[in-house]
Write a structure and sequence with these properties.
The chain has 329 residues and is of the alpha/beta class. 41% of the residues lie in helices and 14% in strands.
Length: 329
């Protein structure tokens, strides 16, 4: 039986249970937090305790695993996640490696790599770092990443393309699956898939994230027909609203595509993207963006829309399990 790496250690894929495939625990800018948050709005213990409370509640509603694709650019801090995980042993937390940026590569890679100022061995150092996270573990934490992450939000800029290629090459070297942030309104799943295809990626191991932000069924069917998985993973966001998101998933299920859909929220226990008062602002602007929205609200709505229990199980259980099962298995 194949196993997937989690913060708790390896877990057999058939024990992952109902899985939310795109969630965050913390989204932070460490430089900003360290320089402006400590001693004012950032209280480490309070934030960790709050995350523990939220995730215990989620586990109590039947979710057994969350995939947290918080990578470089989003404030990945594995020791902080380990503190949370240790207090919620009933929930598997799967973490990722990769880079999240909309335009340029981080400066630490800007002058290093093939054809750049420092090109020691012709290998992109991003690939080396990603592979290490996937095979040896992340820093000295003892936690190993189980998937790769990249983002295509504005366009396939040279920096974004380089990161996507590095992700593709680490995937080829390790077999690790890939998840993406894409802008569905701009239909950026298309160039993402094309780049991965030219790099020899197994598209059945790719989630095209945030696909549920569009109602264009022709686009969604095209993505699914490539073999990739549709990330219907922003339940709780208001645009499109709940009814529209549910109806889109139901329409895809009626067409026989439940085996290429995963569900999630893209929520965070705390995100500083809206500043120090993020929790209060989120509660006002995004009251439904919470980790338990799918088990408490979305699943009943899907059933009401005619989605069968078999299809719900496929989206929450079977598809994540297959995604994390190595192709060789």
């Amino acid at each position: 039986m194949s196993a997937v790496e989690t913060v708790h250690g390896p877990v057999e894929v058939d024990r992952l249970g109902p899985t939310l495939m795109h969630e965050h625990i913390f989204l932070l800018n460490p430089e900003y937090m360290q320089n402006y948050g400590r001693g004012s709005w950032w209280d480490e213990d309070a934030r960790v305790d709050d995350a523990i409370t939220r995730l215990r509640s989620l586990a109590g509603k039947g979710i057994k695993t969350i995939v947290d694709p918080t990578v470089l650019g989003l404030g990945r801090d594995i020791p902080r996640i380990q503190r949370v995980a240790a207090a919620v042993p009933e929930l598997n937390i799967v973490v990722a490696t990769g880079i999240y940026t909309y335009h340029d590569v981080p400066f630490v890679y800007y002058m290093r790599g093939p054809g750049l100022l420092i090109d020691a061995d012709g290998v992109d150092p991003m690939v080396t770092d990603f592979v290490r996270d996937l095979t040896e573990g992340i820093a000295d934490t003892g936690v190993t990443a189980a998937l790769l992450k990249c983002a295509v939000q504005e366009d396939m800029s040279p920096g974004v393309a380089r990161i996507c290629r590095a992700v593709a090459r680490a995937h080829r070297e390790t077999g690790a699956p890939i998840t993406t942030h894409t802008n569905a309104g701009k239909q950026l799943g298309r160039p993402t898939i094309e780049l991965f295809r030219t790099e020899g990626v197994d598209l059945t191991k790719v989630v095209i994230g945030h696909s549920g932000d569009t109602v264009d069924l022709d686009y969604l069917l095209e993505i699914a027909d490539s073999g990739a998985i549709l990330g219907m993973d922003r339940f709780g966001f208001p645009d499109p609203n709940l009814t529209t998101r549910v109806n889109t998933v139901a329409a895809l299920c009626r067409r026989g595509y439940a085996d290429r859909i995963v569900l999630s929220h893209d929520a965070a226990c705390f995100s500083d993207w809206l500043g120090p008062d993020a929790l209060e602002i989120n509660a006002h602007l995004l009251p439904d963006l919470r980790h338990d929205y799918i088990p408490t609200v979305v699943l009943p709505a899907l059933r009401e829309a005619g989605v069968s229990e078999t299809d719900i199980t496929a989206m929450l259980v079977d598809n994540p399990h297959r995604y994390f099962t190595p192709a060789s298995a």
